[in-house]
Amino acid sequence: MRLVIRNDYDEVSAWIAHYIKERIKQFQPSKDRPFVLGLPSGSSPISFFQRLAEFCKAGEMSFENVVTFNMDEYVGIPKTHKESYYTYMNTNLFKHLDIKPENINLLDGNACDLEAECRRYEAKMASLGGIELFVCGIGPDGHFAFNEPGSSLTSRTRVKTLAYETIVANSRFFGGDITKVPKVALTVGVATVMDAREVCVLITGAHKSVALAKCVEEGINHMWTVSAIQMHPKGLIVCDEDATMELHVKTVKYFKSIEHVHQSLIGKENLGLQGELLTAEASTAKTTHNRGHDMLVKQLLSAHHATKYLTEEEDEEIDTDDKPRLLKRRRS
Ligand SMILES: N[C@@H]1[C@@H](O)[C@H](O)[C@@H](COP(=O)(O)O)O[C@@H]1O
Description:
Radius of gyration: 20 Å
Bound molecules: 2-amino-2-deoxy-6-O-phosphono-alpha-D-glucopyranose
Strand content: 5-15%
Shape: globular
Number of strands: 10
Number of domains: 2
Distance between the termini: 22 Å
Helix content: 25-40%
Strand order of the largest sheet: 1-10-9-6-2-3-5
Largest sheet: 7 strands, parallel
Number of helices: 12
Low-confidence stretches: 269-290, 302-312, 317-332
CATH topology of the largest domain: Rossmann fold
Order of helices and strands: EHEHEEHEHEEHEHEHEHHHHH
CATH architecture of the largest domain: 3-Layer(aba) Sandwich
């Protein structure tokens, strides 16, 4: 798992927006091979949505061959309700993009047969070959989508009763009146999200710091459903400094050191893309002209996942040009 720590919410949003842009560009989607993107709701994504809209407007990227799937939808409020996720997504993102309406997928919380609607949604994802990148937000109790504490880690898209904490938290969108918050929703499951080829979780704010610590430092637990990301082969968490409040200092230093090495080796190479945003695969693909460098990057990136914590001294040395020696030291 990769943990990227940025100073604040703005930097986290910028990072995620750039990351999505680069992933879509690298994928080179076409009509027959679209990029399938999973998207979250909640207030956290709003800033990265705005940035994606700006990229699109500036012609820096296109959603023409992107298919989206949203995570969840309330049951029992009209689609056009100002707090439905349908309205939220259109207002905050879709109407600002060049995305084709038929490429937008949202659960229908007013379907006559809600269970059939959930099955339809899963089948549609599967028919497109699954989700390439699922971006998630979380609640302070570590839920993502509406996978509340205690949700099965093998759950799929289904009808879900909301936890009291979630109803209280979301009442801010319903004039602070918890009686107006829907108590039931449709949501993708934990396994639905974890089936994506890559999962990126956005976590900001001190109120989510306990959830981040549970997710990163403790075991996989259905009471903190986002912790399921530990089992994902390509899990990425992007958080701000405030959200790291409950992490051990050594955990923060460890993940920062990994990012530091990643940038010093990949980011400093002018590969035509922003180094820090590259996935390991994309980095290596871009360096086939240089097999030595290719091997080094591959080795170091896999070493990241296996090494012990860096000492202060090693951390200082990351900037040296003696990369092979550094690699050797880290493996010893
Ligand atoms: N169903 C949504 C989740 O998908 C979202 O992650 C969470 C956090 O929202 P916020 O980003 O506003 O903290 O809110 C709701 O419960």
